Amino acid sequence: MASRCKTAVLISGSGTNLQAFIDAVEDGSLDLELTVVFSNNPDAYGLERAEQAGIPTACIQHADFLNRESFDRAVIAELDRFEPELLILAGFMRILSPSFVAHYSGKILNIHPALLPLYPGLNTHQRVLDAGDAWHGSTVHFVTEELDGGPRILQGRLPVQPGESADELATRVQAIEHRVYPEAAGWVGSGKVVFRDGKCWVDGRHAEEPAIQTFTETSGLG
Ligand code: GRF
User: Fold this and answer.
1) Fewer CB in a 10 Å sphere around the end CB: N or C, the chain?
2) Domain 111-222 of CATH type 3.40.50.170
3) pTM
4) CA of 197 relative to ligand 1 center, distance in Å
5) Which of 192, 174, 196 is nearest to 184 (CA)?
């Protein structure tokens, strides 16, 4: 039997997505080995979540480094002790240098709270409301040098409700992230989805568009 994909999760904050990974591994629905949780922020609550789950943690503060390159080199040295085959960015609030992305080429996933290519960057929920969009959601994608621009794997989408606030929308989007992110990571961990030649391949076929899951009822999702 093939060994489980060794996975590092990178966080900076609360870590609700990390918790979704922990829960999915524990209940057997996700076949990854969470080998380390890394944070650039020693106060990240996600570090406690990891400790409670018995997952090793590591923390390096970016403020201790002169520049992004030297910080990223230190992070690589730390992560490589755990020989990760997959890196999950879960609210990791640092932009990665090109050399970091190249070191783990095709092995880094991110989740972005928008239906990419719509709304890369920050404040996505308010921007969706301001534009009057009917749909919003979140996208799991491979990380490349282009911010929020790598090949998309899976989108979870939901209808925007009349009169809802950006905070309410953010809460509903985060709930679907907890479903789609572990699912997409499982596809990559199993080799069903791979990154090759700068593109996303599913079952050996180039996937120009991401898979889409629609959530019309998001109350009750955690
Ligand atoms: C998520 O909403 C994700 O879209 C964004 O960062 C947030 C992390 O939240 N990339 P959490 O720390 O997992 O709760």
Assistant:
1) N
2) yes
3) 0.96
4) 28
5) 192
